[in-house]
């Protein structure tokens, strides 16, 4: 076997040995960092704790209804607002910008009010919202 064939086989061997890692990384069974909790009989699902909401200013989670971004209501700090953070323009994930009192899309600059309504395009549809409540230290959401 000459040097060229040997190097070719080494390359094939390394590719083949890394294939299981690539397949596992791309598997639909791979869980995101956020874990989902079961849906309760009343339709609500826990998305985080009030302590985490106070600490981070928001909760970003995936649940059975989809992605959830929960924040404290800017007009009433005892209430929680939750939206699906998927921008209705091109599907980027919006971020809550407390200084702007708005959900802002980092991709194309769309802005949404805390209730999900569009305040600045290019998006022309509001963010989907969730019904929310706080029980004890848990923040719960339910699809609206």
TrEMBL record:
This protein's record includes keyword DNA damage: no
Gene Ontology cellular component list: membrane
Domain of life: Bacteria
Organism of this sequence: Fischerella muscicola CCMEE 5323
Presence of keyword Calcium: no
Cofactor(s) demanded: [2Fe-2S] cluster
Pfam families: Rieske
Record-linked InterPro entries: Rieske_2Fe-2S, Rieske_2Fe-2S_sf, Rieske_Fe-S_prot, Rieske_Fe-S_prot_C
CDD domains: Rieske
MF-aspect GO terms: 2 iron, 2 sulfur cluster binding; metal ion binding; monooxygenase activity; oxidoreductase activity, acting on paired donors, with incorporation or reduction of molecular oxygen
Gene3D superfamilies (UniProt xref): Rieske [2Fe-2S] iron-sulphur domain
UniProt name for this protein: Cytochrome B6
Domain Rieske: 45-141
Keywords: 2Fe-2S, Disulfide bond, Iron, Iron-sulfur, Metal-binding, Thylakoid
